[in-house]
């Protein structure tokens, strides 16, 4: 049996929102958790921590990205962008009814032989506040929302949170927290030894993808009360 390739191993996509305090993100650990710094590279810091009742660790990744908040949100609202930046995401598309603040996505993650590929059915919720200059996204697995595909193992439990904080016109701090129970016959020690590479490689790609011309010229749209309601192309930049 061939060894699992570290750089090809990947779990899922990730995240969305709830209020701006990370401790309010449901099952995910907050800032007060016992996070262990596992790696620091290119201004990206990766932490892991255990969760009660789970053999699989959660990770937290923090990075200051050279991309504006509107650029990054333009990537996030693109239903197929997962394949561009999330490590080993091979299929990604929107499905069902939904809007900017509450929508649904289906994605597949490539797994190294002999592990079967995983697929995800995800609810994505997004909130933002104009005064806080923060957007939070919260992604949660809803496995029964689509019929099972025999080609993949359906992930039944996955929670992800992204917190985007604008640091200026061309820089954004991203905090990404995720915990996934990958299902099937994957040893937890192997998953826990590899999850550092997933956010590290993905964040590097996200910064590069956000700088592509097709994600330029976007702006955030807020309601009269200051709540984020959409991300749209500026009129002068419409192709």
Summarize this, please?
The protein has 239 residues and is mainly beta.
Overview of the molecule:
The chain is mainly beta and 239 residues long. Helices cover 14% and strands 38% of the residues. It is built from 4 helices and 12 strands, in the order βββααβββββββααββ. The strands form 2 sheets. Strands 1, 2, 3, 4, 5, 6, 7, 8, 9 and 10 form a 10-stranded mixed sheet that branches. It has a two-stranded antiparallel ribbon with strand order 11-12. A hairpin with a 5-residue loop joins strand 11 and strand 12. Helix 1 packs across helix 4 (197-210). The longest helix has 14 residues, at 197-210.
Q: Considering DSSP H and I runs of 4 or more, what fraction of the residues is helical?
A: 10-25%
Shape, per Cα inertia axes: globular
User: Beta fraction of the residues?
Assistant: 35-45%
Helical run tally: 4
Distance between the termini: 50 Å
Count all strands and give the number: 12
Largest sheet: 10 strands, mixed
Determine the mean pLDDT. Answer: 85
Structural class: mainly beta
Low-confidence segments, given as residue ranges, are 1-25
Q: Output the helix-strand order.
A: EEEHHEEEEEEEHHEE
Radius of gyration: 17 Å
List keywords for this structure.
two-stranded antiparallel ribbon, 4 helices, globular, 239 residues, mainly beta, ten-stranded mixed sheet
SSE order and pairing:
Blueprint: E1 36-41, E2 44-49, E3 58-65, H1 69-77, H2 82-85, E4 89-94, E5 102-109, E6 118-129, E7 134-141, E8 153-154, E9 157-168, E10 171-181, H3 188-194, H4 197-210, E11 218-222, E12 228-233
Parallel strand pairs: 6-8
Antiparallel strand pairs: 1-2, 2-3, 3-10, 4-5, 5-6, 6-7, 7-9, 9-10, 11-12
Helix pairs in contact: 1-4
